[in-house]
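Co-fold these.
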Amino acid sequence: MEFLIVYDIAAFFGVCVIMFVMQKTEHDRINRMAPRPLREIRRIFFVLTALLLLFSIWEEASYSSLLALVLGGLLNFVINAIALHLRTPPDDGEDTREEMQRGFPAMGHYISRADVLSLDRGQKYTHELLEAILRNQELEPDRAIIYPAQFQPRKQ
Amino acid sequence: MVSGDFLSLGLHLDLIIAGSSGGICGAYADRKARPLDIIGSIVVGALTANYLSATISNFLGTVILVPAFAIGLAGMPICQKIIKSVELWTPFKGP
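Predicted complex below.
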């Protein structure tokens, strides 16, 4: 019986953590590389997982709650796997963290994935080009995703 | 379900779950909210739904889970309104 009480409390804590991660993901700059429908579906799956956890509190110690937990985890893993696959930049063998830290002062502007893909390989992000992109998207620089200057997208 | 144990503490699991669901739906709708605010609104919504749903359900004459969900959705503003009302309440002041 004590175990079930602890389970209920842990599940509720899990719901809070899921919603925290959902909102953190929404505010994450790198997350905005993913296409809009994918971000929307990921958000819905986060909510579904939280609701399934709440359902498992109600129907605890049963196969249906077990299925709900497995389904919730599976949904999140699948959608995150798709998002990771879609945003993977080419691997040049360098540590990405160091690469981005070096690139940040050089860029400091917002470029959507579509804009990046439309650039030719090796083309420099000139100041005029960035200004044009910003004007076209009507974006504020402080709400920007910052790409490393060395980032060269894969051709599609 | 161990609702008996929670009931002894005054916690109704069904109302807490309904209130939490309301908080989750509110969190989905609000993209701009900060992550910690979201957690706060879910917890506050769940607790407010637990304690206020019965009264509001009796007042409206609806099934108890309906106000529980609605209170969970707007738990934080409801609590702020109650606090403001209490601050303005001066029972011992003459006319």
